[in-house]
Amino acid sequence: MPDRVETEILIVGGGPAGLSVASSLPDGVSALLVHQDREIGVPVRTSGGCWMSDVARLGIPTELAHPVNHADIYSDHEHLSLDMSSEPVGVLDVTSLYRWLASQSKAEIRCATKYLGSRREGDRIVSRLRASGQEYEVISRTIVDASGWHCAVLNALGLAVPPTRRGIGIEYEFSAPTHDPDRAVLFFGACVKTGYGWAFPTTSGSLRLGVGVIEPVSNQSPKVLVQDLLDGNALERMGLPHPENFHVNAGILPSVPYDTQLVYGNVVRVGDSANMATPTLGEGIRICIEQGRALGLALGQRSAPALSQWERAVRRKLALQYRIGFEANRRAAAYGPDDWDRSIARMRTLPSEDLLRFFRNDFTAKMIAHRGAQAVGRRLRKALGGA
Ligand SMILES: Cc1cc2nc3c(=O)[nH]c(=O)nc-3n(C[C@H](O)[C@H](O)[C@H](O)COP(=O)(O)OP(=O)(O)OC[C@H]3O[C@@H](n4cnc5c(N)ncnc54)[C@H](O)[C@@H]3O)c2cc1C
């Protein structure tokens, strides 16, 4: 291994964001992608929920997503049966999807390689990497932080720190031959305070049963919450099988307000390191792929205006939507079990299209106006001394 490697673009992180940047770089751009795990797509740190419309739009092979048309949503005492046939969910085969993205990479991919830090040398960035116990340096024109919640590059350069408010989740994946493969479950309330739980059927006939909570709003360990779930009667009530011979997936994602700055000269961030997962459900893969690909194209133009244009386009698409979604996230994190009962009862009165849009964090102008009016009403009631 030479002590110094030169490349135009260094991408840190081989998740969906980094791989998507690498996949859309034009020919002739030299790039290196480093990934600290031994393999792409392993271990799995996400539950892979997506939407079949996005699977088609992003050109993801359909065999990598399992379509689901029905969801049952539970709180402690309420239940909503949701027909999603107008907007079916797609549960992704995460490992295969990430490998598929990697197969399109225009960058050289080095796994089992950890990014350690960077310094600026003139208009270049010198980064330190470690592989097989050996350190070496990479000199690049641009560096992309696609390291997920670690924000490894921005943190090393003193541009940002990893988020302190984070979603942490754990999931048990197990064979579930008796579970209806067209049925997903979401649950809220006493067993997952500040967060939610899910059960997603997959392409391989298994079920992913998980819970996620927001730290530090909650100090409960998701592992303990899953155990409590298994020990209680909630699974039976929701018609879910008990996990046996399960495999554990676990992960962390940021849960902070969206920050519109993505470009810091020749340092750029994308994906979870830029807090791009939706604030409503914490769904990030489709956004990483879309914005990662757009960033790869912008980087290929080798100009600062192209990067600024990309940053503005992402802001136009996400900033307002995420502000509204984050407000819902903040309020829901403070909900108690009774609030969830009321909330699920209220959801039953909404058209399924509106509910699905809410879950997608995709608010229409009418929904935004309605939420604005509700907020004004709340402020007025407060000012007049009401609740
Ligand atoms: C429990 C849970 C459930 C989720 N469920 C869903 C879901 O259903 N649907 C959905 O769309 N999204 C979901 N998400 C969110 C989704 O997983 C993320 O938004 C997405 O993975 C972000 O992709 P990324 O490429 O930005 O970061 P990551 O997927 O985190 O990838 C970054 C990679 O960079 C590597 N890395 C970090 N630091 C270094 C370093 N110093 N050197 C080298 N490599 C490094 C890491 O090992 C990591 O693999 C979930 C997240 C969690 C935690």
Automatic annotation (TrEMBL):
This is Dehydrogenase (Flavoprotein). It holds the Pfam family FAD_binding_3. Residues 6-299 form the FAD-binding domain. It comes from the Bacteria. The lineage of its organism: Bacteria, Pseudomonadati, Pseudomonadota, Alphaproteobacteria, Rhodobacterales. GO terms for molecular function: FAD binding. InterPro entries: FAD-bd, FAD/NAD-bd_sf, Geranylgeranyl_reductase. Gene3D superfamilies: FAD/NAD(P)-binding domain.
